[in-house]
Design brief:
The chain is of the alpha+beta class. It has three domains: 123 residues, Rossmann fold (3-Layer(aba) Sandwich); 56 residues, Dna Ligase, domain 1 (2-Layer Sandwich); 120 residues, ATP-grasp fold, B domain (D-amino Acid Aminotransferase, Chain A, domain 1, 2-Layer Sandwich), CATH 3.30.470.20. The chain contains twelve helices and 15 strands. A six-stranded antiparallel sheet has the order 13-12-9-10-11-14. The longest helix has 14 residues. It starts with 5 loop residues before the first strand and ends in an 11-residue tail after the last strand.
Length: 345
């Protein structure tokens, strides 16, 4: 087993997905030095890294050059992030990354865009003969009329490029439909129930071939998983294998679906690591470690996740040294997070 120190630049550690990547790295058998970065000195994930930087926003013209500068300065082996904006910003500059010394591996941009737009996701599922919720572009009156005639009320309104449960609501009648937002929204058939929702973690190799998946039934609070349980369901497994075979993601693909009228119906594709990444890692499905082993060491990866398990999330506290926040705000980085004392929980 290769035990050299792997230097990782982890972007967006203020977000729960990048924090989950951080947890998975600490849970792995890899010898990692984690350089964390985020836009605010109060981003909690910074306190759990080995070194911390304040980064520009992904839409800042200086962002790519800044990433390249840190990669060269810290001799970074691989750049990771759970923030869609970071992934898109880096992937959109793919031709320049090698020249800038940025070791970034990712699913191609056109597939990121399918996953980041719920209207595009539904369209892709339909075009590829997969199960999908009936849908309409909210700005197209003809599509909306056709959807209402096909499924009736209630229907679900979602921001096409929203995150979590932000901006999602139910339309129950014609009156509510008239006052509902249209631009940037997709309307969908209301499928399944909260008790028939599943999140499926899939790992695909550099050629887009599925190497393993883990199925969890999940229950949500405020748009994020608060309880999850490993399940074994052949219908879900078969549908996710079909999706992966056609989608050809690179690395982690998270499929969100509900059982509806006896069949699994995908309603969202997260073309990145997931908020449940640390849960999967605990159960033996560490797709972050697999990704690094494949891309840095050319290792064949395989998974043997636990046969059963239940997890609950709960609120906790972290007590941090305010001197680190001040130094980050003043200098933009701290060389050794450990010098400010361990975070107390």
């Amino acid at each position: 087993m290769n035990n050299r120190i792997i230097k990782i630049l982890l972007l967006g550690v203020g977000g729960n997905v990048s924090q989950g990547i951080l947890t998975a790295l600490r849970h792995s058998n890899l010898n990692c030095r984690i350089i964390g970065a985020c836009v605010s000195p109060e981003s909690l994930g910074l306190f759990f890294c080995d070194k911390a930087y304040i980064s520009p926003y992904a839409n800042d013209p200086k962002f790519i050059d800044w990433v390249g500068e840190v990669c060269r300065k810290e001799n970074i082996d691989i750049v990771l992030s759970g923030v869609e904006e970071n992934l898109v910003a880096l992937e959109s500059k793919r031709p320049e990354l090698k020249k800038l010394g940025i070791p970034f591996f990712n699913t191609p941009l056109h597939l990121l865009e399918v996953g980041n737009d719920k209207l595009s996701t539904c369209s892709w599922l339909k075009e590829n003969g997969l199960n999908y919720p009936k849908f309409a572009d909210a700005s197209d009156p003809d599509q909306v009329k056709e959807l209402v005639l096909a499924v009736g009320y209630p229907i679900l309104a979602k921001p096409a490029k929203g995150k979590g449960s932000a901006g999602i609501f139910v339309i129950n009648n014609d009156e509510q439909l008239l006052s509902a937002p249209q631009k940037g929204y997709v309307y969908q058939e209301l499928i399944g129930t909260p008790d028939t929702e599943y999140t499926v973690g899939c790992y695909n190799d550099r050629y887009g071939e599925l190497k393993g998946l883990i199925i969890m039934q999940r229950w949500l609070k405020h748009g994020t998983t608060f309880k999850a349980e490993i399940v074994h369901n052949e219908a879900i497994k078969d549908e996710c294998e079909r999706i992966c075979k056609l989608f050809k993601a690179v690395g982690s693909l998270n499929i969100q679906l509900r059982m509806h009228e006896g069949k699994p119906v995908c309603f969202e594709l997260n073309v990145r690591f997931s908020g449940t990444t640390p849960i999967r890692a605990h159960w033996g499905f560490n797709d972050v470690e697999a990704f690094i082993r494949e891309y840095l060491f050319d290792e064949e990866v395989s998974f043997s996740p636990a046969k059963e398990g239940i997890v609950y999330r709960y609120y906790n506290e972290a007590y941090v040294n305010p001197d680190m926040i001040r130094e980050l705000g003043h200098k933009g980085f701290v060389d050794t997070v450990e010098s400010f004392g361990n975070v107390k929980e």
